[in-house]
Amino acid sequence: MRTLQTPSPESPPAHGDAPAIRCRGLHKRFGDTVAVKSLDLEVRRGECFGLLGPNGAGKTTTIEVLEGLQERDGGELEVLGMRWDRDASAIRARLGVQLQESEFYDKSTVEEAVRMFRSFYPRGPRVDALIGFVQLDEKRRTQVKNLSGGQRQRLSVACALAGAPDVLFLDEPTTGLDPQSRRQLWDVCEAFRAGGGTILLTTHFMDEAEHLSDRIAILDRGEIIAQGTPAELIRALGGDHVVEFASTAQIEDDALSALPGVSRVGSRGESRLLTVAALHTAVPALLDLVAARGGDLTALSTHHATLDDVFLALTGRGLRDE
Questions:
Q1: ∠ at Cα 313 (311, 318), nearest 5°?
Q2: Is the per-residue pLDDT at 32 higher than 80?
Q3: C-alpha span between 197 and 45 (Å, rounded)
Q4: 165 and 95, same structural domain?
């Protein structure tokens, strides 16, 4: 795994052991629309913290307020122990920001783009090191207009790392990318974190959040509705598996809840969802219940419980539902 080396002298960490990000009662509205509502959040140094939620949940607004791109309407906010209203220049020097969409001059090469961003900072890794870190060595002389979507995103991350930031903000970095490009960008994130960096990641891909994040906050309509490690959030469902089925029989929720090992009953469209502890006891019992009601199964599938199931249980809709 590649690491980024920053030439000495090193700048001292800001405000000692203060969390990378701390906010209390953070509030942001646009006219009559409340985008972020009384948000409490603490991101520890050296972790990857994921903000998970569907489009419109408030993820991008939250991250823009934390980055200083939007002014908050209420609440308290500290970044690396500093405040935007009095330490803006010092904070900006310690942050790396990768936006949902980044624009580069199409005719510039990868090396030229990275060199320009590196020139904005008094300290940071060498241009060659930045290009190598995001695995674009073979594309260093390629013009931006000829890069793939995944290569453009990795170039954007290289530019965000040009000032050797303590905190890296990634706003839905893999939206629209193919699976291989997503994995390559995940590798870059993991390498940055392994070097001691802190990441705040927004995404509506539950697998991305589960793979990269040490801890996660699930947002819905501007509020945090659950927070913890991926394992803690999934464990809160009360079972390791989810049974999804459809049937011609009319079965009330109470009857399904009474099946052995069932901890939660829900629905997704026309399908019913059962969170269960053990498939080998729950599925036969379900089959017997359907038969006893004189019906037939029209669909049946099982899967390990995921963060998508957590969000569905909390809100009644899926993470990718618009």
A1: 45
A2: yes
A3: 7
A4: yes
Q: Is residue 16 part of a domain?
A: no
Of 176, 197, 229, which residue is a domain's last? 229
On the CB side of 94, CA atoms within 13 Å amount to 25
Both 253 and 213 in one domain: the answer is: no
Q: Are residues 146 and 68 in the same domain?
A: yes
User: Where is pLDDT greater, at 274 or 53?
Assistant: 274
Same domain, 39 and 62: yes
Query: Do both 185 and 266 map to the same domain?
Result: no
Q: Are residues 59 and 87 in the same domain?
A: yes
* Residue 59 predicted with pLDDT over 50: yes
* pLDDT of 262: 96
Q: Same domain, yes or no, for 288 and 203? A: no
Tell me the pTM: 0.87
Tokens read off for 173 = 């970095």
